[in-house]
């Protein structure tokens, strides 16, 4: 396939522009060691230099000034930004230099020359930032948040145990942890747990909660639907799974400042595990959708919204449980996870043609309509998913307006 058939709309930091020409320069970083009275040099290749991307961005028309001003503001902002290269796709770059010429013979027109320097590892020719890689980024963010959460929880439980001034306060902490284990065990009695006291082994306690959440996922229809990727049930199965956590056990403690600290700490960690598991499930669904598109954009958006809402609740719980120093890294990891969910959902939706409204021109059924519109009768199921309001797919009346992909 020629690159002319796969060009993307160019933009920088979300500001679109018309790319007239691009020039991508690469180089190797070579260390030359020369010796007196000896020809030649010893050459050490110490890696590839940062790729430099030169783009000519065209702005013209009566309203070109507003678009040009927005583009120049994006360039002057500084720091790393996203460049959508018309050939290479999404790149992380820094704007190194630019020039904005104006000529008397070209009114309402400017051809801006910009040089970007790519940040991080280079992107291969014709590579995209596919939805699959965006979905994988969720898993990485979840793993990081899980590790940071357990680390913060370990330190916090240790501090609470030391801060206990008497046996009653020690019992409050111990009982709160044990109560969560007991309540969650009832949700999956067959799950094998370590059973170690949470006050002495906080990480073992956190692992037990994670084991129960994992068993709940494996015991629902969602696990089967993901294995076979059953599009007819995956959406409802997702919300059936997440509904298990709507009334997730919380610590019940007496009044008092110490007890309040115990409750916020235990609730934050107990709720963090199912929250991150929901993000993992969303990642699995988005990865499958990248390969086999089945869900509508609305359904993808609802899955992303649910996962992000739970992550926001997790951020609020961690902010209440930990001080700024203890919880900053964890909260940032949760924010990154929420952002990764949003980006993956967006990538899945944008990987498909845009949805348009089309009018049916004659009485017809969905299979024949799919053949008329796309030349492929098998896309009838796609039309059915995009139009759940259609009660009888065997009869679509003339003049009906349906949702459909543009291509």
How many β-strand runs? 11
SSE order in H/E notation?
EEEEEEHEEEHHHHHHHHEHHE
Biggest sheet features = 7 strands, antiparallel
Ends: how far apart?
Answer: 18 Å
Helical proportion? 40-55%
How do the strands of the widest beta sheet line up side by side? Answer: 2-1-7-8-9-6-3
Spans where pLDDT lies below 50 across 5 or more residues = 123-129
Strand content: 15-25%
Question: Structural class, judged by helices and strands?
Answer: alpha+beta
Morphology? globular
Radius of gyration over alpha carbons? 28 Å
Mean pLDDT: 84
Number of helices: 11
What features would you describe in this structure?
The chain has 407 residues and is of the alpha+beta class. The protein contains eleven helices and eleven strands. It has helices spanning 64-76, 131-163, 167-185, 202-218, 221-228, 231-242, 257-291, 297-321, 324-350, 366-374, 380-386, and strands at residues 11-12, 15-16, 18-25, 28-33, 42-48, 52-60, 81-85, 89-99, 109-118, 355-359, 401-405. The strands form three sheets. Strands 2-1-7-8-9-6-3 form a seven-stranded antiparallel beta sheet, covered by helices on one side. Helix 10 (366-374) crosses helix 11 (380-386). The protein is globular and about 85 Å long.
Short characterization:
By secondary structure, the chain is α+β, with helices and mostly antiparallel strands. 50% of the residues lie in helices and 17% in strands.
